[in-house]
Specification:
Elements lengths: L3 H20 L1 E5 L4 H10 L6 E6 L1 H10 L4 E4 L5 H4 L7 E18 L6 E3 H8 L19 E5 L4 H10 L9 E3 L2 H10 L3 E6 L7 E3 L1 E3 L11 H5 L6 E11 L5 H10 L2 H10 L7
């Protein structure tokens, strides 16, 4: 049994550690960019002051609007209707493009399917198509297990916007993070899911995409994402406030580095995203 003095010291140490953790600035934002932002914080030497908690682009967006944070990372553009909700008067929300990405449509590597068009994807995600026999070129039979990110995800917003998906069907399974999509599609042969291209693992593959059934079908690559010929290309953003409200000094330190391409471009590339040039 611990003596009273030792027990007291341990309690004080634990309390101190919790207190230090609680004082960290918690930056919410895109889960797709969690690896990028965490590495940026570490490389900036700010990991004792800031922690990136993710949660989704929508979570970071709302926190920025509410004044809880002064910076956030997002995998889509800020919603115009939320800009008008920022207070107090005179606050400006500024976008900075971190890099580029493509939404990948992932299937298991043992799936024969190579191409898919927008119409087929919409039918899968509205549950009009439910079996692999209904998807030409899959070489598979049986039920499709279609996976999606949650409603706070900027990737979900981008997917719905680019494909014109109004509502997901009840057959679609919701997962919380990019890594969840990556792992399920790499291990389960009946799955299909969308995620940032960083979800590529040894056991899954991306499909070539076309906006129409007759093609042309385009694979995601550095070139096709930069020239936007890949139909699911997107920009990755870092947002910050200015004007009558500014990031706090610690957030400003991170902001200065994140908007320095000589600092940030190697990190973008480390996480399989595409730099602007």
């Amino acid at each position: 049994m611990l003596s009273k003095n030792i027990y007291t010291v341990l309690c004080l140490l634990l309390s101190s550690q919790i207190s230090v953790a609680d004082t960290k600035i918690k930056i919410s934002g895109s889960d797709t960019l969690a690896g990028v932002m965490t590495e940026a914080i570490i490389n900036a030497g700010l990991n004792e002051q800031i922690v990136y908690v993710g949660g989704g682009s929508g979570v970071g967006e709302k926190a920025l609007v509410a004044g809880e944070i002064g910076i956030t990372a997002m995998s889509r553009e800020f919603k115009p209707e939320l800009v008008s909700q920022v207070g107090p008067e005179g606050v400006v929300i500024n976008p900075y493009i971190l890099g580029l990405d493509g939404l990948g449509i992932f299937v298991n590597q043992n799936n024969s399917l190579k191409n898919i068009d927008f119409s087929t994807l919409v039918k899968i995600y509205s549950c009009e198509i439910k079996t692999w026999e209904q998807v030409p070129g899959s070489g598979k039979t049986g039920a499709i297990l279609a996976l999606r990110r949650n409603d706070q995800s900027g990737t979900t917003d981008t997917f719905k916007h680019l494909l014109g998906v109004k509502k997901f069907g009840d057959c679609i399974q919701i997962l919380q993070e990019t890594q969840d999509i990556a792992e399920r599609t790499s291990k389960e042969e009946n799955t299909i899911g969308y995620a940032g291209l960083s979800a590529k693992l040894e056991g899954n593959k991306t499909l070539a995409i076309a906006t129409q059934a007759q093609g042309p079908f385009v694979n995601p690559s550095t070139t096709t994402i930069r020239n936007e010929s890949y139909p699911l290309s997107r920009k990755l953003y870092f947002y910050y406030v200015s004007g009558s409200r500014n990031p706090n000094p610690t957030e400003m330190q991170l902001l200065d580095l994140v908007t320095d391409r000589s600092f940030m471009d190697p990190i973008i590339q480390n996480h399989e995203f595409v730099t602007l040039d």
